[in-house]
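pinging the channel bc i need a second pair of eyes. not urgent but kinda urgent?? the chain im working w is below, pasted from the shared doc
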Amino acid sequence: MAITSRIITKKVGKVTVVNFIDTAIMDTQQIQHISKELENLIDKEGCRYMILDFSSVRFLSSQTLGMMLKLHKKLADRSGWLGLCGLKKELRKIFKLTRLDQIFNFYKTTQEAIDAALTPEI
C-alpha cells in the first residue's frame, strides 16, 4: 500500500503554509511520515519560513510535539522561522502545560502568521 501525503502546502511569498489532512496526529508511522515530508520542504525545497496550520487537527501526541521541536530547531539552525496557527483551545493547553508555549510562535489565523512571517525583522 502506497503512503500518500499527509499535508497540503501552499507558498505565500517566502512562507510555506502547511495544512494537515488528519484530524488526529497520534500514530508513530503517521508522525514519521509527516516529519519526513516537512524535513523535505526544508532540505530539498529550501523552505526557511514555515507555518503549521492546525485548524483541522483535534488531537496530538507527545511524539508530535517532539517532531515539532525537531522542526523548530532545524529551521532555527538555518536562520529560519516557524509559526503555529489554528490551534484549538484544548491543544493550546498542552503547549502551556509542557512550557512549549515559550518556544513556539502562536497565531489565531493563518493570515496573522503570514503577516508576522513577512515582517522585515524576520
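so The chain has a mean pLDDT of 93. and Helices lie at 28-43, 62-77, 89-97, 110-117. — does that match what u expected or am i reading it wrong
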